[in-house]
Specification:
threonine-phosphate decarboxylase activity, about 325 residues, about 75% helix, two-stranded antiparallel ribbon, 2 strands, ABC-type vitamin B12 transporter activity, transmembrane
Amino acid sequence: MPLEPVIEIISILFIATLIDITIGEPPNRMHPVVMIGRIIKFFTKIIKNASRYRIGKETFEKVMGSILALGLTVMVGVVVYYVSTQSFYLLGTVFFVIVSSAILKTTFSIRAMDNHIREILVELDKNNLNNARTNLSKIVSRDTRNLSESRILSACIECVSESFVDGILSPLFYYGFLNIPGSMMYRTINTLDSMIAYKDDYHNKLGWMSAKLDTILNAIPARLSSVFMIASIMVCGQDWKNAIKIVKRDYQNTESFNAGIPMSIMAGGLNIQLEKIDHYKLGDMNEQITIQKCKTSLKITKIATLIFMISFLIPVIIILNYFNWWTILFGI
């Protein structure tokens, strides 16, 4: 049972987290997820153009969309695996750790969501509702033009809660089992979901497989998130008992199979009601939604991330090392 692989893999996690906290996102021209997004756009146009005059258009788009989702995900996994292994064999351990840390950082983001939300809160603090609505529109799909301050804050807290799963916990969860290829493959599917998995006529069939894969891959992390979020709510001195009550009662209120879990936990822990008009209500309006409540939600997700890493992710990496998984995976 060699110790070197586990030390390297935990070091990659630590360095990637440090990069995220101190530097943040790389420029778009160098961001792998942005490049993946461009590939998705390119093939989406090709598929839509090819299906325009085709008999059985819906079936064609469903099949081609499935090939795109599965093919791109596998391709990304293979490329990232090749790059990471070759960096080790050709340039040694130090370069392997540096390259892997840089790639891993692009699959999750703690700082970016924090920055987006705080920009909105600054505008609300100045009573600049229009600016707050504009900034909010960059991170949500709903119409923000006429939202009140409380609706804006609700949307912010919903984003913070949901992004804890698909922006932090899920990519790191798959890193814990499949290293960089697993984390990057998850991010590919999540990007496909965010770009083409809509229910409108244009995307409905094309993004069918992407939506299914995203739901499946987030199922376990979303449910695990409840443990770390409730523990964090306890640490922050919020109402953890109500969080458990609300998640049991309301987690199925959302159309999403997974999103209702972290959002309802946050609603219960903060003793507030989160609402997307004509879609769902989570929690009870025991207390008003305030800017401070939103800041507390950010704190909860950060502490939950730390608890997740220490109590789950690192132990998983160590246990897998005991069974020589990392040696088998990378052939080292």
